[in-house]
Amino acid sequence: MLFDTDTELSERFINEAPFSKFYIANDKDSPGRIGVWFGWQIVQSYIKNNDVTIQEMLATPNEIIFKKSKYKPRKK
């Protein structure tokens, strides 16, 4: 879903809501705007793992940021 072009994804993962809409049984366990939170985690990881300025990062294609971020969510 990360690189999907479906226009309805912003409504499901970025817009305000009581929860994200994965359309699975435990939807109510996830917060709204979870896409924004994940995006911020990826950006922070990219900046931490690469010697770049904010301006350079903003000029970098999304897929490159994702790949070079080396982002790995913590497992519980």
DSSP helix fraction: 40-55%
Question: What multimeric state do the chains show?
Answer: single chain
Kindly estimate the percentage of residues that lie in beta strands according to DSSP: under 5%
Q: What string gives the helices and strands in order? A: HHHH
Radius of gyration equals 14 Å
Number of helices: 4
Number of strands: 0
Number of self-contained structural domains: 1
Largest sheet: none
Distance between the termini: 22 Å
What this model shows, in words?
By secondary structure, the protein is an all-alpha fold. It has one domain. The protein is 45% helix and 0% strand. It has four helices and no strands. The protein has helices at residues 9-13, 34-49, 54-58, 62-69. Helix 2 packs across helix 4 (62-69). The longest helix is centred in the middle third of the chain and has 16 residues, at 34-49. The chain is globular and about 40 Å long. The two termini are 22 Å apart.
